[in-house]
């Protein structure tokens, strides 16, 4: 069987992920068509906070979290609330969530997140330079604060996962927190800074600029269902 010589690719979805995929495929020599029913960036890429967190390597489900689920379910203001009539339908999902929260599974997920999120800034850089929009990104760090040192120590496993990923973590006392962010009320005893995290100040502008660059370089943008 001979190898295909077709160099045309269609990318479905003109959010930031689809746009970046299209740009990288184009840079690799493919003829690319980018398809979406909306204008580039106008759905999930529009209006979000634009956080860029290479050190976000801890999943939502963590070991021991299952012990908190019963209390959450009866708390209208808790992080997990399911109406009683929906509980039977949600139960299989809850069981899968608990299963994925095992320590061994969390370690696997964390390694996958490290591979996915770790190179984020480096992966964006060539596209930002080519589109001349490097000013949209700011690596200002991300601050995590706790009312008490004991509360921070309860979060040890999350911090271990971040350290294992190679993410830079700087531990802080109350004085250091105030020096970094004086607008915070002086009620936090401990915290840590992840200096390599940052944000995009205009996620929609980023998507639109990269989509325009893609079109200018010969890419095809198709607005259709």
UniProtKB/TrEMBL annotation:
UniProt GO cellular component terms: cytoplasm
Domain FAD dependent oxidoreductase as annotated: residue spans: 9-222
Single GO term (MF): oxidoreductase activity
Keywords of the record: Oxidoreductase
Keyword Oxidoreductase found: yes
Secretion signal, residue range per the UniProt entry: none
Pfam families in the cross-refs: DAO
Protein's recorded name: FAD dependent oxidoreductase domain-containing protein
């Amino acid at each position: 069987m001979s190898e295909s010589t077709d160099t045309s690719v269609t990318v479905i979805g003109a959010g930031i992920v689809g746009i970046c995929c299209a740009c990288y495929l184009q840079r690799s020599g493919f003829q690319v068509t980018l398809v979406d029913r909306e204008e580039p960036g106008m759905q999930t890429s529009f209006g979000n906070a634009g956080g860029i967190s290479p050190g976000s390597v801890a999943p939502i489900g963590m070991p021991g979290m299952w012990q908190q689920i019963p209390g959450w379910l009866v708390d209208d203001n808790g992080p997990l609330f399911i109406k009683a009539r929906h509980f039977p339908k949600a139960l299989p999902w809850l069981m899968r969530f608990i299963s994925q929260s095992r320590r061994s599974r969390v370690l696997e997920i964390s390694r996958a997140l490290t591979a996915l999120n770790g190179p984020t800034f480096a992966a964006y850089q060539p596209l930002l330079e080519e589109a001349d929009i490097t000013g949209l990104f700011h690596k200002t760090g991300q601050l995590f604060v706790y009312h008490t040192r004991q509360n921070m120590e309860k979060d040890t496993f999350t911090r271990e996962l971040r350290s294992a990923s190679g993410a830079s973590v700087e531990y802080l006392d109350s004085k250091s927190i105030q020096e970094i962010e004086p607008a915070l009320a002086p009620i936090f005893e401990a915290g840590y800074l992840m200096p390599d995290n940052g944000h995009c100040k205009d996620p929609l502008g980023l998507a639109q600029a990269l989509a325009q660059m893609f079109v200018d370089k010969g890419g095809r943008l198709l607005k259709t269902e």
